[in-house]
């Protein structure tokens, strides 16, 4: 049972770390790069990114993180062993749930609105479309990046505690 607990915890750490890295990459590279682009390039680039990210690999990380966090917690709770890791796993679960709520409640609706706006020929319409999207999306991405990174940290610490027999 201890090995299964460890495997689920390692998986949760890995997938949560990948998702934290993805959001961090957007925060420090993708969005700053697009910030320098013209409105048409920005809107079209984000529309293409939004379409490309909807794939099985992203879904595996996005949903798989929570599944493995919950599995690690359940195995720890009901599988015996010390409970020293349980508070850290629970904190990670809450933080990762916040990531899901932020993504589905804020970032995805902003993505959908940007996509629904199409790629207008009118420069003023393009600028308006970008203006409604960019600032809000970046703010919510920053919040989910912090939450996801904190969840990753909690899981990493739980893994250390698991290795120490806690």
UniProtKB/TrEMBL annotation:
The chain crosses the membrane at residues 6-31, 52-74, 86-106. Keywords: Membrane, Transmembrane, Transmembrane helix. It holds the Pfam family Anthrone_oxy. InterPro entries: Anthrone_oxy (IPR013901). The keyword Transmembrane applies. This is DUF1772 domain-containing protein. It comes from Streptomyces diacarni. The lineage of its organism: Bacteria, Bacillati, Actinomycetota, Actinomycetes, Kitasatosporales.
């Amino acid at each position: 049972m201890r090995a299964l607990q460890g495997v689920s915890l390692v998986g949760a750490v890995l997938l949560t770390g990948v998702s934290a890295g993805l959001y961090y990459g957007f925060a420090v590279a993708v969005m700053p790069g697009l910030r320098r682009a013209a409105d048409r390039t920005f809107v079209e680039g984000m529309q293409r990114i939004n379409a490309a990210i909807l794939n099985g690999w992203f879904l595996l990380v996005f949903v798989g993180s929570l599944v493995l966090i919950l599995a690690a917690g359940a195995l720890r709770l009901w599988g015996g062993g010390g409970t020293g890791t349980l508070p850290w796993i629970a904190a990670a679960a809450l933080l990762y749930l916040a990531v899901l709520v932020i993504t589905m409640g804020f970032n995805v609706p902003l993505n959908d609105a940007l996509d629904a706006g199409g790629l207008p020929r009118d420069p003023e319409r393009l600028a308006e479309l970008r203006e409604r999207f960019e600032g809000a999306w970046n703010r919510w991405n920053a919040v989910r990046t912090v939450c996801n990174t904190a969840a990753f940290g909690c899981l990493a610490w739980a893994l250390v505690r698991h290795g120490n027999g806690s």
